[in-house]
Amino acid sequence: MRIHRSGSITRFLAGWALVLFAGPTSWADAQPPKQGSKPNVLFIAVDDLRPEFGAYGHPEVKSPNLDRLAARGLTFQRAYCQQAVCSPSRTSLLTGARPDTTKVYDLVTHFRKAMPETVTLPQFFKAQGYFVQGLGKIYHPGFNDPPSWSVPWETATPQARPYALAESRALAQKNRQATAPAKAKAKKKAAAKQGSRGPAFESADVPDDAYLDGAVANMAVKTLQSLKAKEEPFFLAVGFAKPHLPFVAPKRYWDLYDPAKIALASNPYRPKGAPEYAVQPGGELRSYANIPTGHVPDELARTLKHGYYAAISFMDAQVGKLLDELDRLSLRDNTIIVLWGDHGWKLGEHDAWCKHSNVELDTHVPLIVVAPGQAEPGKQSKALVEFVDLYPSLAELAGLTPPAHVEGTSFLPVLKSPDRPWKSAAFSQYPRQVEGRSLMGYSMRTDRYRFTRWVERDDPTKVTAVELYDHETDPQENQNIADDPANTALVAKLTKQWQAGWQGTKAELSASRP
User: Where is the Sulfatase N-terminal domain (predicted)?
Assistant: First the structure.
């Protein structure tokens, strides 16, 4: 591990230097630390959250608690996931490995199949003597990982339902029953069919814990109270489901917004010059009741966006309960807090909804990190960082050395100096089945450009399409300029950087670090 010699975070780490270097040389052989000798970790996961709320310069979204968390730490303006869909993204973050290593590209594969002996992020902290507990959505549903936890992972109580209104529950049950026979015949869990679920949104005059996230927040508050009494440091992972579909939230959160003031997407069309398969229309949304197959009408689109915003504010309130309890228990000064959203989300941009692509809206993610003793809290950084970087970063913040399999780079230097030069690129990918062919779109985000090459999965030397977007002139990625003869030299330059891949970027960064 590299110890840096200046700044408040250095002093924070130096406080555990004796523990780190006097102990065993193998992380797996470390002795359990005592409470107070290591920082606690509060690890907050959020589903389908775009990096568009107050702390990210979007005051129209009411997010007072996310904003006060950002005021305590560092907000990463340009963080990226490795694949824009739940299980591959969460797997990548929690293992510190990229999708081509985990072999998780879908919602039906567990990472233990390809990496049976891998040590996950929570499992790593558990091996260091931490009490590690998971609540709510951390891994993708159905793919929990028992070795990761000190006690069995928990979801919310049965009283918390996906819908609060009886008519919503009845519609969901009716549609479920109608598609059950076809689902039973399927060999694999497939995407839900058109209209097979309940309503896409709901506003009910109910308490927070009538819905899942409110119940999870209550569990987390009680868990923090019990962890306070333990001798060992803790790693508490709390996963919130909103603003994932369906957009359900108590009515008071809907009332925060005037629907007449909600602006619709200004680019409701596909990227010009891009392959048709680059952006798909959003089949996940169409699996909910009464959503049309084609273009979503403006009135419905505004209601959906209203529901998305209400769901964010509802989730934000639950985060506030955790922060309040952490303060009340006097745990704040010795707890690392990280809040991340597993991927972005489209709200009608490119005439599409949901995630499932390599575009900026899908791969760009929120990431806020609070470290005890952090210099200049409340700052923002434009450094390019990736979700695989979170594993080594948390390890280094806690004075630990991560396992060798981790493919990211600790961004601790950015926490110390938010404006410093950092990675030259971040990498994402997404698979496609196109006319019987298996393709993989590998996307590279540099400071200025998004560059994506679609290749045959069986033969990556066969390129089927190239996308290039200039964020200086086209931040919405509306025009693919890869085929413009004026950009031939630029495409060649970016291709060379793309071919060097994340390994090249990591080596470049390692060579530049002091």
Answer: 39-399
| Alpha carbon distance 279, 277 (integer Å) | 5
Q: Percent of the chain beyond pLDDT 90?
A: 84
Unique residue bearing structure tokens 């949901």: 354
Q: What is the pLDDT of residue 167?
A: 94
E strands in 170-322: 201-204, 234-240, 247-250
Place of tokens 């702390």: 55
Q: CA 369, CA 41: separation in Å to the nearest integer?
A: 11
- DSSP 8-class letter at 117: T
The torsion angles phi and psi of 264, rounded to 5 degrees, stand at -85, 165
Phi and psi, residue 39, nearest 5°: -75, 145
**What amino acid is encoded at 320 in this protein?**
G
Closest-CA residue to 390 (of 371, 409, 372, 370): 409
Instruction: Give the three-state DSSP class for 300.
Output: helix
Which amino acid makes up residue 84?
A
Provide the 10 A C-beta neighbour count for residue 436: 5
How many C-alpha atoms does 87 have within 13 Å on its Cβ side? 17
**Domains 8-423 and 428-512 fall in the same CATH topology:** no
Percentages of the chain per state (helix, strand, coil), in multiples of 5: 40, 20, 45
Domain ranges of the chain: 8-423, 428-512
In the CATH hierarchy, which fold is given to the domain comprising 8-423?
Alkaline Phosphatase, subunit A (3.40.720)
At a CB cut-off of 8 Å and minimum separation 6, what does 163 contact? 169, 172, 198, 199, 202, 246, 248
Could you tell me which of 271, 312, 283 has the C-alpha nearest to residue 474? 271
Average pLDDT, the chain: 90
pLDDT value for 19? 34
Q: Give catalytic residues, as residue numbers.
A: 86, 140
Token readout for 99 is 């999708």
Query: Is domain 428-512 annotated with CATH 3.30.1120.10?
Result: yes
Q: Measured between alpha carbons, how far is 365 from 371 in angstroms, rounded to an integer? A: 20
Distances (CA, A) of 288 to 65, 172, 260, 285, 376: 30, 9, 24, 6, 45
The pLDDT tens digits of the residues spanning 103-144 come to 999 999 999 999 999 999 999 999 999 999 999 999 998 889
Which band of pLDDT confidence, cut at 50, 70 and 90, is reported for residue 449? Answer: very high
Nearest-angstrom CA–CA distance, 46 and 44: 7
Tens-place pLDDT, residues 311-344: 999 999 999 999 999 999 999 999 999 999 999 9
pLDDT of residue 512: 79
**pLDDT tens across 1-54, in order?**
333 333 444 444 433 333 333 333 332 333 444 555 799 999 999 999 999 999
At 357-370, the pLDDT tens digits run 999 999 999 999 99
**Structure-token match 């071919």, residue found:** 499
For 278, list phi and psi in degrees, rounded to 5: -60, -40
